[in-house]
C-alpha cells in the first residue's frame, strides 16, 4: 500500500489539488443553489423519507424536473448522501464533487492506456484537476460529471482489454459504461455508439474473443435493459428529447417556414437538407476557438471578456499535441482513431439540441482536449529539457501561465460571475423563501410571482421547490398538498402558498396576504410605499423582488 | 490529353448547368441591386445613382465603394441589357475564370494533375462561388485578380506591366485587397518556389510598398478617409464598448475589496490583442470554411459540407508527411489583417479559396475508390438539393406580387416605408420599372450630385421611388401615388387592421395600393 502511495505520489498530489480547487468556498460560491439543485435535493429527501418524489411517484425512474425530465442517477445519489449526512445544503454537491475528483485518476488511467507514458498521463490528470469546465460543473452539481467519470473509466478498461485481453477489464469497462448511461440522457445515446465504433475499429481483437465478448455484451444488455425500457415506455423521456431537440430552435423554424413549393416530396427533401445543414453548422460551431478559449463558460455578460471552456494557455499545447499525435509513430492507429471518434461523436449532442452552445452535453470532448493538450505540453517540456540552455526559465514560465489563468478564472468565478449571473441561478429565491416562511403565521395567504430578471423578465419555475426545501416543508405533506391552480396564471398551490403570475390591477385588492413580486409585475410608481415590508436584491444590487403586505 | 479534355468538358457543362439552374430564383440584395442600377445609369446616362459623372469612388450605406465592379456592371448592362443576366454575365465569366485559376494555382503548388483537377471541381461546386457568380459582387473579381497575380508572379519571365495592371485593378476592386496584397505577395515570392531573383523580389516588394503607402496617404486625406479605414478595416481599434466592459468588471472587483492592482492586472486593454488574435484565427478555422456564411437563406458555407471529410484528411496528410506547407501559408498570410478587422471580412476569406480547395483536393486524391465515390456521390446530392432548395424558396414572390398589382403611370411616385426588412429602395427599383431619365433627374439631390466623395450615404429616393422614414407624414393630395407601407406608416392615416394586407417574407404585413396621398413637406 505504502509503495503504491509513493509510486503515485504525484497523482495523489494532483488529486489533492483537484479536491482543494473544487471544494474551496463551495458553500458560498455559487452564491445559491440553482433550480436544478434545489429540485433534486428536495426530491432526493422526499424519496429518502417516503420512497416517492414530491409529486407522489413511487421510486421514480424519471425525475420530473423544471419544465423538463431528468435521469434519476443524481437524485438517488443525493438521497444516499442524505442518509449519511442528513438535511444539509451541501449534500447535493457531494456526488458531483466526488465524481469530478474521481475523474482525475480516471483520466490518468485513460491517458496511460492511450499513450503508455506516465508523464503525459500525469500532465493530463493535472490539466483535468485545474480545468475550468471541470471545476465549474463539479461545483454546480451537474449529473454529466458523474457520467463523464464512468465514461472515462469504462473506455480505459475497454482499451486495456483490447491490448491485454484480460476478461476482467472487459467486464469492468462494460459495467462502468452501463452505469454511465444511467447518469445523463446524451450518454445513453453516445456510449452505445462509441462502443459499436470501438468494436468496429478493433474488430481483429474482438473477433478473436467472440464468445467472451458476446457474453459480456449480454451482461451489458441486461444492465441497460431497465434504461431502455424506461426510454421507450416513459413518455417523460420522449418529452425530454422533444423539448431539447434542434427543431425547437426558433431560427430554424423561421427558415423552414420559407420553404414553399407545390411539391410535398420536394419540400420534405429541402426541409431535411436545411435541418441537416443547420445541425451541421451548430455542430461545427462548437469548435469555435473563441468559445473554447475566451468566453464559452459564460461567466460574464460581456463577451469576449470571460472564461473559455479551457484555459487560454491550453490553446498552443492543444495544437502542438494534435500535431504530434498525428505524427507520432509510437501511438497505434487504432488509438488515434479512438481519440478522433471520441471528439467527433462526443460533439454530436450539442449539434442536435436547440441551444447555441450546450457545453454540459459535450464535456467528454473538452476532457479529450485536455488529454491532447497534455501531449502537447509534454512535447514542449521535452524540447525544453533537450535545449535547456536556451529555454531554462520556460520551466517556470509555463506553470506560471497556468497559475495566472487559474487565478483569473477564480476571480471571475467568485467575483464577477456572482455579480453578473446571479439571476441565472435564481438568486435571491432562497432569501425570498426564508422570508416568506418567517412571515408564514402572519398572513392567511402568501402569493409569490416568480417572474423576475434584470434586463428582461423570465419565470423561475422552481419556486415551489425553493419554498418547500427552505421551509423544511415535509415532502409527505407536499405530495398531498401540491396541486395546480388557475393555469392561465400558471398557478401552483400548496399550504398557504399560491405561486402564480400577479395582475396588480386585481391583486392589490387582496386582504391579509403577503405578496412577493418583482417590478415586472407591480406598478411601482402607483404603489403605496408603506406596503413594502422587504426588498430583495440581485447580487449586483438591482431590485429583484418586493414583499408587500396587503391588509 | 484526351482525359483532360474530357474532364474539362464535363466540368464546364456541369458548371453551366449549376449556374443556370441556381440563378433562376436568386434575388439581388440591396447592395447588389445598387451595383446593377448604378451600372445601368452609368452606361445609359454617364452618371451614378446620385447623379455624379463617372466618379472614381462610389457611396454605400457602410463605406466608400471601389470602382471596378460598378464599371464592369456598366459594361455588362450596356452589352447585355437591363436584366439580371445582363449584369450577371461578367460574374459568371469570372466564376469560370476562377475554376481555371484554382486549377493553375493547385498545379503550380502541388505539381499533381489529380489534385489540381479535384481542386478545380471543388471550387466549381463551391456554394459561395456559385452564389457570387449569380450576383454582382466584388468578391469573385477580387479572387480572380489575386489568382492572376499569383500566376504572373510565378511566370518565368518578369512582366512589370502585367503586374502593375493587376495590382492596380486589385486596389481598385476592394479596400480589402489593399490589406491582402502584402501578405499574398510575400507568400508567393518567398514561401513558394519562384523564378524571381532577389533583386526582382526586392523590386516587387518595394513597388508594392510604395504604392500602398501612397494609397493610404491619399486615402487619409479624403473626407472621412481615416474614419472609413477605422470603421471598416481596423474595427478592433474602434471597439469602444470594450473599455466600458472592462470598467464594469473592474468595478465589481473593487466593490468586492479586491486590490485594484489585481483588477487592472486581470482586466486591461491587453484583451484587444486576444480579440484580434482570435479574429485572425477564425479566418483559418474550419468553422468559417464549412459553417454558415449567411449568404443566402440556405445555410451554405464556402465549401460543400461533405468536403469537410477530405479537408480533414488533406490536413492530416500535410502534417503527417510535412508536404505542401505553403498551402497553409497562403491563408495565414492573406488573412493577417484579420487581426485588426474583427468583423468577418468575406473577401479576405474567399481569396484563400483556391488554397483550401487544393487541400480538399489532396484529401480526395488520397481516398480509396469507394470512399471517393461515396464523397462525390454525396457532394452531387448536396449540390442538387442546394439548387432545388434555392428554387423552392420563393425569393421573388413578393416582387411578382408587386409587379402584378402595381402599375405606375407617368408622374406617379411609389412611397415605401423604410422599415420593410429585405426589400429596400434599390431592390424594388431594379426589379420593377426601369427608371426614366426624367424621374432620375428629379430624384438627384443637387447638393449631393456636386460632391465627388460621400461617405455612408443613405439615399431616400431613386427614380420614382421615395422612402418614408418614421418622421414623415402622409396627407391627401391630387396625385395618385403607389403606397407600400408597413403598419407603422399606414397607421398615421388609417386603421391598419381593416385593410387588405400582403404577407411579406412570412413575417411582415404590408399595404400595397394606390391612393391620393403624398408626403407632407
How many whole angstroms does the radius of gyration of chain B measure? 26 Å
End-to-end distance of chain B, in Å?
71 Å
Radius of gyration of chain A: 26 Å
What spatial form of chain B do the alpha-carbon principal axes imply?
Answer: globular
- The assigned structural class of chain B equals alpha/beta
Percent range for β-strand residues of chain A: 5-15%
Structure notes:
With 551 residues, chain A is α+β, with helices and mostly antiparallel strands. Helices cover 63% and strands 7% of the residues of chain A. Chain A has helices at 2-7, 9-23, 35-50, 73-85, 93-115, 118-130, 132-139, 143-164, 167-183, 185-201, 203-208, 210-233, 235-244, 250-257, 264-285, 289-295, 314-327, 333-346, 348-352, 363-386, 388-391, 394-421, 429-438, 463-470, 475-481, 504-507, and strands at residues 63-65, 68-70, 445-448, 451-452, 458-459, 483-484, 492-494, 497-499, 513-517, 532-537, 543-550. In chain A, the strands form 3 sheets. A 7-stranded mixed beta sheet of chain A has the order 6-7-8-3-9-11-10. Chain A has a two-stranded antiparallel sheet with strand order 1-2. In chain A, a hairpin with a 5-residue loop joins strand 10 (532-537) and strand 11 (543-550). In chain A, helix 2 crosses helix 7 and helix 17 (314-327) packs across helix 20 (363-386). The relative contact order of chain A is 0.10. Chain B is of the alpha/beta class and 521 residues long. Chain B contains 25 helices and 6 strands. In chain B, helix 9 (175-191) packs antiparallel against helix 17 (326-334). The longest helix of chain B is centred in the first third of the chain and has 27 residues, at 84-110. The model of chain B has no long low-confidence stretch (mean pLDDT 88). Classes of the chains: A alpha+beta (551), B alpha/beta (521). At the A-B interface, helix 14, helix 15, helix 16, helix 17 and helix 22 of A face helix 12, helix 14, helix 15, helix 16 and helix 20 of B.
Amino acid at each position: 500500500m505504502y509503495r503504491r502511495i509513493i509510486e503515485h505520489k504525484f497523482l495523489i498530489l494532483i488529486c489533492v489539488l483537484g479536491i482543494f480547487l473544487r471544494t474551496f468556498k463551495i458553500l458560498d460560491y455559487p452564491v445559491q443553489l440553482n433550480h436544478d439543485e434545489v429540485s433534486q435535493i428536495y426530491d432526493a429527501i422526499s424519496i429518502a423519507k417516503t420512497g416517492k418524489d414530491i409529486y407522489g411517484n413511487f421510486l421514480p425512474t424519471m425525475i420530473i424536473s423544471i419544465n423538463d425530465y431528468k435521469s434519476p442517477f443524481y437524485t438517488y445519489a443525493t438521497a444516499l448522501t442524505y442518509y449519511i449526512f442528513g438535511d444539509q445544503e451541501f449534500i447535493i454537491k457531494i456526488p458531483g464533487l466526488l465524481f469530478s475528483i474521481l475523474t482525475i485518476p480516471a483520466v490518468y488511467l485513460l491517458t496511460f492506456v492511450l499513450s503508455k507514458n506516465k508523464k503525459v498521463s500525469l500532465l493530463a490528470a493535472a490539466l483535468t484537476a485545474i480545468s475550468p469546465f471541470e471545476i465549474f460543473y463539479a461545483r454546480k452539481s451537474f449529473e454529466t460529471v458523474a457520467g463523464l467519470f464512468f465514461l472515462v473509466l469504462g473506455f480505459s478498461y475497454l482499451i486495456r482489454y483490447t491490448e491485454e485481453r484480460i476478461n476482467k477489464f472487459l467486464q469492468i469497462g462494460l459495467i462502468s459504461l452501463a452505469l454511465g448511461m444511467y447518469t445523463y440522457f446524451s450518454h445513453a445515446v453516445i456510449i452505445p455508439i462509441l462502443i459499436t465504433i470501438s468494436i468496429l475499429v478493433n474488430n481483429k481483437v474482438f473477433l478473436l474473443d467472440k464468445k467472451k465478448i458476446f457474453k459480456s455484451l449480454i451482461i451489458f444488455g441486461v444492465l441497460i435493459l431497465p434504461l431502455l425500457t424506461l426510454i421507450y415506455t416513459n413518455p417523460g423521456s420522449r418529452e425530454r428529447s422533444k423539448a431539447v431537440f434542434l427543431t425547437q430552435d426558433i431560427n430554424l423554424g423561421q427558415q423552414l417556414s420559407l420553404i414553399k413549393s407545390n411539391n410535398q416530396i420536394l419540400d420534405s427533401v429541402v426541409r431535411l437538407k436545411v435541418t441537416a445543414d443547420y445541425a451541421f453548422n451548430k455542430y461545427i460551431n462548437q469548435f469555435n476557438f473563441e468559445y473554447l478559449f475566451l468566453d464559452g463558460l459564460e461567466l460574464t455578460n460581456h463577451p469576449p471578456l470571460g472564461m473559455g471552456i479551457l484555459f487560454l494557455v491550453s490553446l498552443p499545447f492543444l495544437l502542438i499535441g494534435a500535431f504530434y499525435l498525428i505524427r507520432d509513430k509510437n501511438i497505434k492507429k487504432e488509438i488515434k482513431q479512438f481519440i478522433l471518434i471520441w471528439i467527433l461523436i462526443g460533439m454530436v449532442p450539442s449539434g442536435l439540441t436547440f441551444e447555441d452552445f450546450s457545453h454540459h452535453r459535450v464535456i467528454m470532448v473538452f476532457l479529450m482536449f485536455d488529454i491532447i493538450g497534455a501531449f502537447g505540453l509534454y512535447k514542449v517540456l521535452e524540447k525544453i529539457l533537450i535545449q535547456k540552455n536556451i529555454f531554462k526559465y520556460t520551466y517556470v514560465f509555463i506553470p506560471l501561465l497556468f497559475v495566472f489563468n487559474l487565478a483569473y478564472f477564480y476571480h471571475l468565478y467568485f467575483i464577477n460571475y456572482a455579480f453578473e449571473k446571479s439571476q441565472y441561478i435564481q438568486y435571491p429565491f432562497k432569501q425570498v423563501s426564508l422570508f416568506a416562511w418567517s412571515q408564514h403565521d402572519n398572513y392567511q395567504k402568501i402569493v409569490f410571482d416568480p417572474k423576475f430578471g434584470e434586463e428582461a423578465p423570465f419565470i423561475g419555475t422552481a419556486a415551489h421547490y425553493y419554498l418547500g426545501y427552505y421551509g423544511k416543508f415535509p415532502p409527505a405533506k407536499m405530495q398531498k398538498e401540491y396541486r395546480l391552480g388557475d393555469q392561465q396564471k400558471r398557478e401552483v398551490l400548496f399550504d398557504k402558498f399560491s405561486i402564480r403570475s400577479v395582475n396588480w390591477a386585481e391583486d392589490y385588492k387582496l386582504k391579509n396576504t403577503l405578496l412577493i413580486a418583482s417590478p415586472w409585475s407591480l406598478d411601482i410608481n402607483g404603489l403605496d410605499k408603506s406596503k413594502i415590508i422587504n426588498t430583495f436584491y440581485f447580487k449586483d444590487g438591482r431590485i429583484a423582488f418586493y414583499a408587500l403586505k396587503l391588509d | 490529353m484526351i482525359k483532360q479534355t474530357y474532364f474539362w468538358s464535363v466540368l464546364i457543362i456541369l458548371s453551366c448547368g449549376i449556374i443556370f439552374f441556381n440563378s433562376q430564383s436568386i434575388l439581388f440584395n440591396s447592395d447588389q441591386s445598387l451595383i446593377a442600377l448604378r451600372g445601368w445609369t452609368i452606361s445609359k446616362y454617364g452618371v451614378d445613382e446620385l447623379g455624379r459623372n463617372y466618379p472614381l469612388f462610389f457611396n454605400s450605406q457602410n463605406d466608400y465603394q471601389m470602382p471596378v465592379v460598378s464599371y464592369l456592371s456598366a459594361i455588362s448592362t450596356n452589352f447585355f441589357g437591363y436584366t439580371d443576366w445582363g449584369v450577371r454575365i461578367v460574374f459568371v465569366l469570372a466564376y469560370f475564370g476562377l475554376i481555371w485559376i484554382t486549377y493553375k494555382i493547385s498545379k503550380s503548388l502541388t505539381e499533381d494533375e489529380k489534385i489540381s483537377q479535384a481542386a478545380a471541381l471543388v471550387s466549381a461546386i463551391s456554394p459561395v462561388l456559385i452564389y457570387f457568380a449569380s450576383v454582382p459582387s466584388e468578391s469573385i473579381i477580387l479572387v480572380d485578380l489575386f489568382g492572376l497575380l499569383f500566376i504572373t508572379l510565378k511566370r518565368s519571365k518578369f512582366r512589370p506591366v502585367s503586374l502593375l495592371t493587376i495590382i492596380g485593378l486589385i486596389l481598385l476592386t476592394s479596400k480589402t485587397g489593399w490589406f491582402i496584397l502584402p501578405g499574398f505577395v510575400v507568400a508567393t515570392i518567398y514561401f513558394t518556389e519562384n523564378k524571381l531573383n532577389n533583386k526582382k523580389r526586392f523590386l516587387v516588394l518595394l513597388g508594392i510598398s510604395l504604392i500602398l503607402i501612397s494609397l493610404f496617404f491619399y486615402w487619409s486625406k479624403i473626407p472621412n478617409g481615416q474614419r472609413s479605414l477605422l470603421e471598416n478595416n481596423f474595427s478592433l481599434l474602434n471597439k469602444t464598448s470594450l473599455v466600458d466592459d472592462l470598467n464594469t468588471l473592474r468595478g465589481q472587483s473593487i466593490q468586492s475589496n479586491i486590490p485594484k492592482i489585481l483588477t487592472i492586472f486581470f482586466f486591461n486593454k491587453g484583451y484587444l490583442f486576444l480579440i484580434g488574435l482570435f479574429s485572425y484565427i477564425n479566418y483559418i478555422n474550419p468553422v468559417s470554411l464549412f459553417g454558415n456564411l449567411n449568404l443566402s437563406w440556405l445555410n451554405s458555407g464556402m465549401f460543400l459540407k461533405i468536403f469537410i471529410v477530405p479537408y480533414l484528411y488533406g490536413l492530416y496528410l500535410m502534417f503527417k508527411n510535412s508536404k505542401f506547407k505553403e498551402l497553409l501559408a497562403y491563408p495565414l498570410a492573406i488573412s493577417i489583417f484579420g487581426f485588426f478587422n474583427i468583423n468577418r471580412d468575406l473577401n479576405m476569406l474567399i481569396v484563400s479559396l483556391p488554397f483550401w480547395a487544393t487541400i480538399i483536393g489532396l484529401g480526395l486524391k488520397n481516398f480509396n475508390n469507394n470512399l471517393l465515390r461515396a464523397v462525390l456521390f454525396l457532394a452531387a446530392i448536396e449540390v442538387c438539393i442546394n439548387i432545388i432548395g434555392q428554387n423552392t424558396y420563393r425569393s421573388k414572390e413578393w416582387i411578382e406580387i408587386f409587379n402584378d398589382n402595381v402599375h405606375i403611370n407617368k408622374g406617379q411616385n411609389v412611397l415605401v416605408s423604410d422599415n420593410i426588412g429585405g426589400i429596400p429602395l434599390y431592390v424594388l427599383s431594379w426589379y420593377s420599372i426601369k427608371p426614366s431619365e426624367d424621374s432620375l433627374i428629379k430624384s438627384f439631390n443637387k447638393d449631393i450630385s456636386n460632391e465627388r466623395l460621400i461617405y455612408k450615404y443613405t439615399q431616400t429616393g431613386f427614380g420614382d421611388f421615395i422612402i418614408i422614414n418614421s418622421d414623415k407624414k402622409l396627407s391627401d393630395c391630387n396625385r395618385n401615388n403607389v403606397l407600400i407601407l408597413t403598419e407603422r406608416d399606414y397607421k398615421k392615416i388609417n386603421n391598419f387592421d381593416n385593410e387588405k394586407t400582403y404577407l411579406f417574407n412570412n413575417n411582415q404585413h404590408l399595404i400595397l395600393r394606390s391612393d391620393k396621398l403624398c408626403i407632407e413637406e
